[in-house]
Amino acid sequence: MKVGVIGLGWMGRVHLRNYCEMQGVEVVGVVDPNEDILGEVAQQFRVPVHTDLSALLAKDLDAVSVCVPTILHHDVGLAVLGRGIPALIEKPLAATAAEGEALVALAKSKNLPLMVGHVERFNPAVQRVKQLAGDDVISIQIERVGPYPPRIQDVGVIKDLGSHDIDLIRHITGSEFSQVYAVTSRTIGKHEDSALITAQMDNGVLASINTNWVTPYKSRRIHVACKSKYIEANLITQEVKEYSQFSTYDKSYSVREWPL
């Protein structure tokens, strides 16, 4: 499989490193406007480097990772899909809903795979939560907080962190958002750095997201209330606990810790 990487910031290098470690995958080229970065990457990974996107897209490619700033996802994604190349675009898919819809429409019209880098779906803790919850979900709460990351300048905390949780709620509940109420605040940067989101899904499940860049420590937790159980998961340590046989009268319950 022949792949390319567009954008060599922190996330782009993660994609590149993983591709280089995968058997059966050949990185035929990478693109970034910064020649200093290209020099470092060429020396470290021994891959062809380009400053011009068209030079990479002219190659024989099976897929491309798009890891440029969010504001560029639309234009770069259209260029990639327009050349008939499947794309894995880092989250969020685009800066606006309209731009995201345009990318999806083009991919569909050309029958091309288009994926978004929602990596949390593949977190073993998330997979266990989804398995345990089944179709029994009453409500889901997600906390994703931590300190402000200076490297992220182009988007706020909702697009950077909250996009994971918006996707996870859809993934775990198997439903789409029906009603949404959200409030945000800005303390540090030029975009929002705190957000509280409350929602109801089409299937009636209640959902909430607490995400911010004003917490001194990193926390990634999910709480799922079901009709017959309660599930909590730490997405960092990948610890999952399932509470069952509980009584609201005498406050007794059974708990099972799931090894992953």
Features:
single chain, 260 residues, alpha/beta, Rossmann fold, Dihydrodipicolinate Reductase, domain 2, 2 domains, 8-stranded mixed sheet, 7 helices, elongated
Summarize the structure.
The protein is α/β, with parallel strands linked by helices and 260 residues long.
Description:
It is a single chain. The chain is α/β, with parallel strands linked by helices and 260 residues long. It folds into two domains: 2-117, NAD(P)-binding Rossmann-like Domain (Rossmann fold), CATH 3.40.50.720; 120-258, 2-Layer Sandwich (Dihydrodipicolinate Reductase, domain 2). It is built from seven helices and 14 strands. The strands form two sheets. It has an eight-stranded mixed beta sheet with strand order 8-9-10-7-11-12-13-14, with helices on one face. A hairpin with a 4-residue loop joins strand 9 and strand 10. Helix 6 crosses helix 7 (157-173). The longest helix is centred in the middle third of the chain and has 17 residues, at 157-173. It is elongated, with a radius of gyration of 20 Å. The model has no long low-confidence stretch (mean pLDDT 95).
